[in-house]
Design goal:
This protein is α+β, with helices and mostly antiparallel strands. Among the domains are: 10-52 and 140-231, Probable tRNA modification gtpase trme, domain 1 (Gyrase A, domain 2); 277-349, Elongation Factor Tu (Ef-tu), domain 3. The protein is 18% helix and 34% strand. The protein contains 7 helices and 19 strands. It has helices at 10-15, 35-44, 119-129, 152-160, 204-212, 222-231, 265-274, and strands spanning 19-23, 26-31, 46-50, 55-60, 84-90, 96-106, 109-114, 134-137, 142-148, 172-177, 180-185, 194-200, 217-219, 279-285, 296-299, 302-313, 318-325, 335-340, 343-349. The strands form 4 sheets. It has a 6-stranded mixed beta sheet with strand order 10-11-12-9-3-13, with helices on both faces. It has a 6-stranded antiparallel beta barrel with strand order 14-17-16-15-18-19. A 5-stranded antiparallel beta sheet has the order 5-6-7-4-8, with helices on one face. α2 (35-44) packs across α6. The radius of gyration is 20 Å and the shape is globular.
């Protein structure tokens, strides 16, 4: 049996009655009160997520000379200190090894935040592509909590003063929290106003309890987090992204800078020239039925693709999903049929995001 890793909060999750399950090699809370209730708490007030399973690496050195600049699909050297950027680590074929965020901590220092399931491989791949400098895996000593929702700013101000109160999207600051220098970032995965707080593991329990002492904040598990991200059209690694899917197929070319060098660039340029055979497509179901991962996408009676993410959307009152189909079927308004065994539901291609009413830019 797989030996699951635990975050510092595992006993607290169980004490709160959380349903626990394996995720990316970790024992993680899926839900407490319930996925819909926790989803609503995040959309209406504020929700707190244990994200200590994510991986964190610290690079120290010359961004350009030591080769970090050529590792990802975006320019690290152009990120101002105090800002972060999202993009990809690719293989030679242009497939996505991982999607990640790089935080520019100083002129010669960056933090790379990666997905839990891919962290060990990411560390090896990134390290193998560097020409110098230092790369440290600090996942084991770094804790991370995400406070998300329209009330998150006032909660932060009440608990920590000015820390993060005026941060624009994708900017971060350092602040003294519980006696430690923490990184407070205006980022998240829900489509709502929110903050990601990085602090040493030893202070995570105290920070968790402090934030939950505010009545406006509810604990939330990965089930609601997945639903929240799907409603705003964010891709999930392992479902909508993988080593066999390129950023072009996933509709994420805006996070690829073709004016710089990176492994996989040649494959992407060839794909652009030859044309895509499949593309990511968002769709709405004409009922409350939920499409699910690996359901078949049909058009005119033919199997044309597969669903990679799907759920019932409480905000839209219908089923929503993401899948991959030939480009000629990706135009908004195109009818599709989603099938699995005896289940069949009519759907229509739409635009992203599904839900447009979030507080993200507040």
């Amino acid at each position: 049996m797989e030996q699951l890793k635990s975050t510092p909060l595992t006993s607290h999750h169980r004490a709160l009655g959380a349903l626990m399950a394996p995720f990316g090699g970790w024992d993680m809370p899926i839900q407490y009160e319930g996925i819909i209730a926790e989803h609503r708490a995040c959309r209406d007030q504020a929700a707190l997520f244990d994200i200590c399973h994510m991986g964190e690496f610290i690079f120290s050195g010359d961004i350009v000379k030591d080769g970090l600049e050529d590792v990802f699909t975006f320019s690290v050297a152009s990120i101002p200190v105090g800002r972060s950027k999202y993009g990809f680590l690719l293989n030679e074929a242009g497939g996505i090894i991982d999607d990640l965020i790089v935080f520019r901590l100083a002129e010669d220092k960056a933090m790379i935040v990666v997905n839990a399931a891919t962290a060990d491989n990411d560390f090896e791949v990134i390290g193998s592509r560097l020409k110098g400098g230092g790369l440290a895996n600090v996942t084991g000593v770094t804790g991370k909590l995400d406070l998300q929702g329209p009330h998150s700013r006032v909660v932060m101000e009440r608990l920590f003063g000015a820390a993060g109160s005026n941060l624009p999207y994708f900017k971060f600051t350092t602040a003294k929290i519980l006696g430690f220098e923490a990184i407070v970032s205006r980022t998240g995965y829900t489509g709502e106003l929110g903050y990601e707080i990085f602090i040493p593991n030893e202070k995570i329990v105290e920070l968790w309890e402090l934030i939950l002492s505010d009545d406006r904040v509810k604990p939330a598990g990965l089930g609601s987090r997945d639903l929240l991200r799907l409603e705003v059209g964010y891709s999930l690694y392992g479902s909508d992204l993988s080593e066999t899917i390129t950023p072009l197929e996933a509709g994420l070319e805006s996070f690829v800078n073709f004016d710089k060098e990176f492994i996989g660039k040649g494959a992407l340029l060839s794909q652009k020239q030859s044309g895509l055979t499949r593309v990511k497509v968002p769709f709405k179901v004409g009922s409350r039925r939920s499409p699910r991962h690996d359901y078949t996408i049909m058009s005119a009676g033919e199997n044309v693709g597969i669903v990679t993410s799907g759920a019932f959307s409480p905000m839209l009152g219908c089923g929503i999903g993401i899948g991959f189909v030939p480009p000629n079927l990706a135009t908004p308004g195109t009818p599709l049929t989603i099938c699995h065994d005896k289940v069949s539901m009519e759907a229509e291609v739409c635009n992203l995001p599904f839900f447009k009413g979030g507080s993200l830019r507040s």
